[in-house]
Write a structure and sequence with these properties.
Elements: H1 2-32, H2 37-60, H3 67-95, H4 100-123
Length: 129
């Protein structure tokens, strides 16, 4: 249980870095380049994913799985998350008429546990303590 708690804390820290990268890209594309929020969120999601993979592989899960395998599995999890991110952002912005930043915060929170569990038990296969 201690290992799970530690991983969840590190995952949250890594997620904060990756999310910050996503939000910066989102806001730059919306505010400076007048791009639609759902598109901008999706571009930011991909950008943040690069940070997420590297830091989770090395820090959170300390995975010894080969990158060619872990990266493919990470991309699969990220693809599902990317799809869910787009759907939830679209609902928030286009249907519920939320501010795009509020919609992104709610979307990010909604995806947190799915991505943690998928990456812990499949992508990086956590080492047993």
């Amino acid at each position: 249980m201690k290992e799970l708690r530690k991983q969840l804390i590190y995952f949250s820290m890594v997620g904060t870095v990756a999310t910050a990268a996503q939000y910066v890209v989102l806001m730059i594309l919306v505010e400076l380049f007048h791009q639609p929020p759902v598109f901008s969120s999706s571009v930011g999601f991909v950008f943040g994913g690069f940070f997420s993979y590297y830091l989770n592989h090395r820090l959170t899960f300390q995975s010894d799985k080969k990158h060619r395998i872990a990266m493919i599995q990470f991309i699969c999890v990220a693809a599902v998350s990317f799809w869910l991110n787009g759907i939830l952002m679209s609902i928030g912005v286009n249907r519920l008429h939320l501010d795009y930043v509020v919609a992104q915060i709610l979307t990010t929170g909604s995806l947190l546990f799915w991505t943690f569990l998928a990456n812990r038990f499949w992508t990086f296969r956590a080492r047993s303590s």
